[in-house]
Amino acid sequence: SYGLTQPPSVSVSPGQTARITCSGDALPNQYSYWYQQKPGQAPILVIYKDTERPSRIPERFSGSSARTTVTLTISEVQAEDEADYYCQSADSSGTSVVFGGGTKLTVL
Amino acid sequence: QLQLQESGPGLVKPSETLSLTCVVSGGSMSTSSYYWAWIRQPPGKGLEWLGNIYYSGTTYYNPSLKSRLTISVDTSRNQFSLKLNSVTAADTAVYYCARLVRAARGHTQDFDYWGQGTLVIVSS
């Protein structure tokens, strides 16, 4: 079955830039979405439609897309950004949801 | 402000049926702009989409669970439900209900509202 691939972990120091990738064959034709999840909490949306940011999300969060890979970039990482990040999209039909395996961002 | 709240037993025996309900408040479920979805997360693991339902009753299921899963909707009570039968320990997870944005041609977009989640343990 169709799946999205993320690195299990990414580590950065405060103030640096973190980049989390997500790969999938259907991504050129389906939007991607990114969620942040902290322990014991429900996920919250940080990027939608590949590159759009909800108004409540800090500007240091951005998204980009290139062929079969989408990337979540967090600039000037802060300690509060330490969390699990999940990409989400749809299969080629557009009606079945798929999540990436998640990436644990550690702020050193 | 839309709110979703899951409810149901926190403990289910193996081989039995897991049943959960999600009550939606602060907005009507009877809208063409959204689906209503279930997602789960086993302890220490990632998110898994289970399925979603349109207010008309049309359902979409994760193929890996389709044979065991039923999602239904009751728009008069503004709630939707999940039934997962023949459960095993592998079904132990936090179960979330969420609103899923529906685009043109019925395509799915993002989950914009989530419930707080409810932990269901499968154990004898």
Would you give an account of this structure?
The complex is a heterodimer of chains A (108) and B (124). In chain A, the strands form two sheets. In chain A, strands 1, 3, 4, 7, 8 and 9 form a six-stranded mixed β-sheet that branches. In chain A, strands 2-6-5 form a three-stranded antiparallel β-sheet, with no helix packed on it. Chain A has no helices and nine strands. Chain A is an all-beta fold. The termini of chain A are far apart. Chain B is built from no helices and eleven strands. Chain B starts with a strand and ends with a strand. The model of chain B has no long low-confidence stretch (mean pLDDT 96). Classes of the chains: A mainly beta (108), B mainly beta (124). Chain A binds chain B through residues 1, 30-31, 33, 35, 37, 42-45, 48-49, 86, 88, 90, 94-102, and chain B through 37, 46-49, 52, 60, 62-64, 96, 100, 103, 105-112, 114-117.
Characteristic terms for this protein:
heterodimer; A: mainly beta; six-stranded mixed β-sheet; B: mainly beta; seven-stranded mixed β-sheet; four-stranded antiparallel β-sheet; 0% helix
